[in-house]
Amino acid sequence: DLWQAKGHIRFQDVEFGYASGRTILPDFTLDIPAGQTIALVGTTGAGKSTLAKLVSRFYDPTRGAITLDDVDLRDLHPKDLRRAIVMVTQEAYLFSGTVADNIALGKPDATLEEIEAAARAVGADAFIRSLPDGYATDVNKRGGRVSAGQRQLISFARAFLADPAVLILDEATASLDMPSERMIQDALQTLLADRTAIIIAHRLSTVAIADRVLVMEHGRIIEDDTPAEL
Ligand code: ATP
Ligand code: MG
């Protein structure tokens, strides 16, 4: 049977340091109710990406625990974990292959109809159809003929198709023109609905749509508020 996660994430007294060096998170405690959108901001080296990697289990805490629906991530079956928690990073937006293949990474057995529905949901369908071979267009590793904003939309379609309970997004820093910026924000709103999200936010517009903004410094939260209060 497939386990269906709700998406309640909790860090309990988490300590973490990379094997080679100093402690990055000395004592981190945070409760993220299912369905909440968190924008994570803070200075470079604060530990934002480290936090994202811990939730995705690239690493485990050296002390304390991270739980999903009150289950320690270390006790989850890897298959359940991969289905429940998906991380979208700016380095891995596209792989070589067709646009359809790239979207289907979120659900390898997806039909073309499902792939197209995911693209439509995040507003990527129109530009994909305008590509030389539509969904069958080959994209090379660096994204070749698709722009930074379009790459991000394709990765959103992939995440939408995967439909995880928890989405972790390391937002691209690349600057976009206004129409693309607008499209990304609309797509993001659709993508965030009905799931827990932790976004390492680089855009003010993303911070604005979050339920809660956490400001990090030296592995600690120094502010925890709604966007309006900041
Ligand atoms: P940025 O805004 O620049 O992306 P960040 O808040 O994401 O910063 P992290 O990448 O989490 O910060 O890094 C936190 C600290 O951990 C930094 O001091 C960094 O040098 C260190 N660090 C990150 N990755 C590793 C690693 N693989 N091995 C050792 N130290 C690392
Ligand atoms: Mg980072």
UniProtKB/TrEMBL annotation:
Entry's localization field: Cell membrane
Residues covered by the ABC transporter domain: 9-230
Protein name: ABC transporter ATP-binding protein
Organism: Microbacterium pullorum
Taxonomic lineage from the root: Bacteria, Bacillati, Actinomycetota, Actinomycetes, Micrococcales
Full-length numbering of the shown residues: 354 to 583 of 602
